[in-house]
Amino acid sequence: MLRINRAIYDRIVAHARRDHPDEACGVVAGPEGTDRPERFIEMANAERSPTFYRFDSKEQLKVWREMDDRDEEPVVVYHSHTATEAYPSRTDISYASEPNAHYVLVSTRDPETEEFRSYRIVDGVVTEEPVEVAEGEPAR
Question: Quick check: pTM over 0.90?
Fold first, then answer.
């Protein structure tokens, strides 16, 4: 199960809507080994594409080094789908390289509907998990 703070949830959805019609992407870092998503990190989609996302390699290296320096790990890796449901594509599955992360997808295909789903992706196997949204600020 993904437990995520309302403020971070809202920021992920807002980023997805703002970048539409291109896919948005980013991570939410948390203290190593805690499974607590605490620090929202919006990243640029280097592809600037409505059908594909890729972290900019320099930005990703900087973000991952910063997480290492802060004893953090990527608890959530998120991106949006602009014309399809919030379910990982074959490409998404092939690029899933963080076995402990929650892979969140937000579909922006319908501006009136919020579709926010979370998955575990390990060795190419996709497992959807429930999402629990907590009110209030994330613990620090």
Answer: yes
